[in-house]
Design a protein that fits this description.
The chain is α+β, with helices and mostly antiparallel strands. Helices cover 46% and strands 23% of the residues. The chain is built from six helices and nine strands; from the N terminus they run ββαβααββαββββαα. A hairpin with a 2-residue loop joins strand 8 and strand 9. 19% of the residues are buried. About 10% of the residues have low confidence.
Length: 194
């Protein structure tokens, strides 16, 4: 389906560009959200009449996004989550969690689609991501995920968290040595009952 874009859309085009998109994308996203018009003679004339207004609206949106850049850059995105002995999270940190944290910490409302995370975070550590406040205003942010505030403070200081398997192995070995006497007692009890 051929459409005329009424605002800049990343990876698609700028205001006034005529682009070919899939019918479902146009019907379900672009047209209902007033991001595009169907490519017809009437809509071409309508777009030309409103072009200056649309460009002015786009510039205002860009200025509003630029005013939020410092708040987003200075936001401390610290996520405390439960994790296993290897640092693997029991859940994950998604773009929705990051958008919610930005609202709570910095007071900046962003949609989860504006968080350019890629894949959810599934382990403890420090992660870089981007927030698209506007298609032309993209801000780099750092997210710290740990089990406790002390671990987050260590990550912020630049230290790496280690999850030693040796420590885990020692605990398992101790448990096995404790289990032997219990097993021996059980064997002695069965022998005595015979």
């Amino acid at each position: 389906m051929k459409v005329i874009l009424t605002e800049k859309i990343t990876k698609l085009g700028n205001i006034g560009d005529t682009v070919e998109v899939k019918t479902g994308f146009a019907r379900n996203y672009l047209l209902p959200n007033n991001k595009a018009l169907r490519f017809t003679k009437e809509n071409i004339a309508l777009f030309e009449a409103k072009k200056a207004e649309l460009i002015a609206r786009q510039e205002n949106a860009k200025k509003a996004a630029e005013s939020k850049v410092d708040a987003v850059k200075n936001a401390k995105l610290h996520m405390i989550r439960q994790a296993g002995d290897t640092g693997q999270l029991y859940g994950s940190v998604s773009s929705r969690d990051i958008a919610r944290a930005l609202k709570e910490v910095a007071g900046v409302n962003v949609e989860s689609a504006q968080v350019l995370l890629g894949a959810p975070i599934k382990s403890v550590g420090a992660f870089d991501t981007k927030i698209a406040l506007h298609p032309d205003v993209i801000v780099d942010v750092k997210i710290y995920v740990a089990q406790t505030q002390d671990e987050i403070d260590a990550l912020v200081a630049g230290k790496t968290l280690t999850f030693g398997t040796k420590k885990v192995e020692e605990e398992v070995a101790e448990e096995k040595t404790e289990e032997k006497p219990v097993e021996e007692k059980a064997e002695q009890a069965t022998e005595e009952s015979k």
